[in-house]
């Protein structure tokens, strides 16, 4: 946070307050709503859910999108739980502990995998992540990696909200190799989150209710059949020659075909000429050639 927007004169402010001040100075026309609390507690979670479902630009309407920029798995799972219950689309993002890789993920409840469908090992093994942190040791932090991941996240948000380009369901970033892996993950039918499973069933019903599009086979356009120059495409190989160049098709299991067949040998074909072995050595043959 200190590398992206925290400034020295903001020392003592909470992260959300410092973020609001910095962003308001950049663009004073943006409306901000600041809540400085822990969303993982029961009381705050209910308020958090309320602001997602009623905190849109038009009061009483849900927000268009939730962005997760938190730094721990417990908070991510809390956002995941809230969005699954509300059916709220959200985007998750994060940077690795060594600060040289990161990712973004679009999560549409029921349609794509939620954070609990394929959780990190720490979450899957139910390990308290607080026990993994060593006292006095801070995780690595590179503003360049964070800037790249933040830029990718915002770019994906613009494409999603303004409906242009291809919106990535998952896009990673490996700074060591400049590698950007991308994929889309289907939801897990055995997801531990019951609301995720419920959203999956709702999505299946929605898809089933859509009108089915009949597949129409387009006729292949024939080129140069009629033209003003009277050009015709004529095969240089006759049907008889094609037939003779193919052999019998072997009996294969259903679904398996051969790429080509070996043609039968013609009975009237000229036998290959062979030379009998005289038994002479190479040196003797070379001597004969010199004497010729």
Task: Please give a structural write-up.
The chain has 292 residues and is α+β, with helices and mostly antiparallel strands. Helices cover 33% and strands 8% of the residues. The chain has eight helices and five strands; from the N terminus they run H-H-E-H-E-E-H-H-E-E-H-H-H. Strands 1-2-3-4-5 form a five-stranded mixed sheet, sandwiched between helices. It is elongated, with a radius of gyration of 34 Å. The mean pLDDT is 84.
Helix content: 25-40%
Low-confidence stretches: none
The pLDDT mean sits at 84
Order of SSEs? HHEHEEHHEEHHH
Number of E-type strands = 5
Beta-strand percentage range: 5-15%
Order of strands in the sheet with most strands: 1-2-3-4-5
Structural class: alpha+beta
Radius of gyration: 34 Å
Give the end-to-end Cα distance, rounded to a whole number of Å: 94 Å
Number of helices: 8
Largest sheet: 5 strands, mixed
The backbone outline, from C-alpha atoms, is elongated
List the helices and strands and how they pair.
Blueprint: H1 15-26, H2 42-54, E1 66-68, H3 73-86, E2 90-95, E3 101-107, H4 121-124, H5 143-162, E4 170-174, E5 182-183, H6 194-209, H7 239-244, H8 282-291
Parallel strand pairs: 1-2
Antiparallel strand pairs: 2-3, 3-4, 4-5
Helix pairs in contact: 2-3
Output the keywords.
elongated; 5-stranded mixed beta sheet; alpha+beta; 292 residues
Short description:
This protein has 292 residues and is α+β, with helices and mostly antiparallel strands.
């Amino acid at each position: 946070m200190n590398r992206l927007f925290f400034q020295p004169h903001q020392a003592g402010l909470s992260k959300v307050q410092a973020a609001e001040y910095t962003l308001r100075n950049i663009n004073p026309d943006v409306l901000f709503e600041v809540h400085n609390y822990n969303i993982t507690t029961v009381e705050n979670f209910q308020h958090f859910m309320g602001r997602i479902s009623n905190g849109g630009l038009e009061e009483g309407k849900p927000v268009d999108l939730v962005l997760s920029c938190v730094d721990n798995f417990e908070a991510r799972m809390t956002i995941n739980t809230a969005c699954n219950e509300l059916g709220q689309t959200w985007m998750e993002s994060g940077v690795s502990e060594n600060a040289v890789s990161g990712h973004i993920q679009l999560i549409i409840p029921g349609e794509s995998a939620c954070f609990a469908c394929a959780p990190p090992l720490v979450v899957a093994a139910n390990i308290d992540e607080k026990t993994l942190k060593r006292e006095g040791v801070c995780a690595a932090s590179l503003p360049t990696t964070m800037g790249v991941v933040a830029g990718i996240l915002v770019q994906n948000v613009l494409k999603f909200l303004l409906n242009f380009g291809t919106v990535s369901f998952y896009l990673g970033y490996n700074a060591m190799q400049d590698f950007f892996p991308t994929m889309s993950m289907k939801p897990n039918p055995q997801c531990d989150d019951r609301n995720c499973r419920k959203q999956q069933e709702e999505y299946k019903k929605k898809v089933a209710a859509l009108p089915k599009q009949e597949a129409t086979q387009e006729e292949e356009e024939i080129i140069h059949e009629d033209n003003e120059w009277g050009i015709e495409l004529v095969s240089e190989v006759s049907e008889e020659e094609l037939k003779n160049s193919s052999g019998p098709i072997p009996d294969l299991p259903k679904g398996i075909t051969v790429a080509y067949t070996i043609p039968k040998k013609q009975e009237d074909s000229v036998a290959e000429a062979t030379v009998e072995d005289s038994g002479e050595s190479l040196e003797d043959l070379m001597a004969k050639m010199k004497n010729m």
